[in-house]
Amino acid sequence: MTANDDLRQLVRTIPDFPRPGIQFRDITTLFGDAWGFGETVRRLAAAARDSDAQVVAGIEARGFILGGAIAAALGLGFVPVRKRGKLPYQTIGRDYELEYGQDRVEIHVDAIASGARVLLVDDLVATGGTALAAVELFRSVGVEVAAAMFVIDLPELGGAELLRQAGVPVTSLFAFAGH
Fold it and tell me: Is pLDDT of 60 > 80?
């Protein structure tokens, strides 16, 4: 048994979702387990303490769940990183490429002050496209991304490595082979 296998075992794998050949890692089973969810937040928050982050940003949608809980555990504020058109006030955003098109992440223009250090949180890193777009968005307004944290890494898809190459320290609790 390796570190965090106790949490890893709480993640359900659904074969062939959303299309054939994909092994979907369903983290809702981990979130639904009171001990598992609490321990996930505790472990990520403990790993984040050395980042000197001043605010936590969570990527839509499961990053909201984790990011909000980690922010509360660390006594920090929370910034939602949303998909296009979901925020009610003036926004700034960054477009990014998907397998079949393009999408956009946005934050409110006044969500975070230039010069701040942000901890970026999501449930899973695959190709890293959304996380990299969020990093670029924060950097475009003078915010330093202190670190990125995920419960799950899918290393064969290379997202965590792309974030590291972009100068962002990456932490994940465990990895799954394949995609």
Answer: yes
